[in-house]
Backbone:
């Protein structure tokens, strides 16, 4: 299994108090199958698969009062160094780096505006095994009310270089890592998104048909926050699962 380059989003997982519900909803929505971690300490953490390849995970929340949330993981060669850089750049270390059995080393951080993200230093588990195909992660985007602060922070932490482009109602920023744009940033969006959301990282999954997937999500008890619409990259919609976790889907041309 090939790894993901450092500085690149490599994994996404869902923390939810309704793990059983998530294990019903997402396989019905995306055609995923599940593989439960054998360790009792993992709390039933489940790796979701497409055609036998890992695409995402789901597990119990870190604390009982944690709201259901999809998390973005960025690959790193050194999770402890990433933690040092987060603090030096004005962010918070929410969970200090620790080993996840023999799979990898991770830490959970927040940027100065409060957007939570994780890092993954791979060991046996390198990250997702499939990207950009239906049912797999295809994009990660920061929604932040402080884009200038975010530009300084993520450049210090990951070496990302921001590239601004005009968009309807504001500016879209691409995060360049080496030769590639690996993620994006937008200002807080209206048009269906909750107005009280703090800064957050959104996880996007590729689908074959955005309209059909959004309709199916609603049938399964989810919520359509932003109905399918055409954007430059494809046809996109923002959804919530039945427990309230926000995620996006996109069907690309």
Residues:
């Amino acid at each position: 299994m090939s790894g993901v380059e450092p500085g690149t989003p490599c994994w996404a997982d869902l923390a939810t108090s309704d793990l059983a519900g998530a294990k019903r909803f997402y396989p019905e929505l995306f055609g995923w199958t599940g593989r439960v971690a054998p360790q009792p300490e993992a709390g039933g953490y489940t790796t979701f698969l497409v055609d036998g390849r890992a695409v995402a995970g789901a597990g119990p929340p870190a604390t009982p009062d944690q709201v259901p949330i999809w998390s973005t993981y960025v690959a790193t060669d050194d999770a402890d160094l990433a933690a040092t850089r987060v603090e030096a750049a004005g962010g918070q270390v929410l969970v200090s780096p620790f080993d996840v059995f023999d799979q990898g080393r991770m830490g959970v951080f927040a940027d100065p505006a409060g957007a939570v993200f994780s890092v993954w230093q791979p060991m046996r588990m390198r990250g997702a095994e499939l990207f950009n195909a239906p049912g797999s992660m295809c994009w990660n985007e920061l929604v932040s009310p402080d884009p200038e602060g975010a530009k300084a922070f993520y450049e210090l932490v990951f070496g990302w270089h921001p590239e601004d482009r005009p968009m309807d109602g504001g500016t879209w920023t691409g995060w360049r890592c080496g030769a590639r744009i690996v993620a994006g940033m937008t200002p807080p969006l209206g048009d269906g998104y909750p107005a009280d959301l703090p800064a957050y990282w959104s996880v996007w999954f590729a689908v074959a048909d955005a309209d059909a997937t959004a309709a199916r999500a609603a049938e399964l008890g989810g919520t359509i926050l932003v109905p399918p619409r055409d954007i430059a990259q494809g046809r996109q919609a923002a959804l919530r699962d039945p427990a309230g976790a926000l995620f996006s889907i996109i069907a690309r041309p």
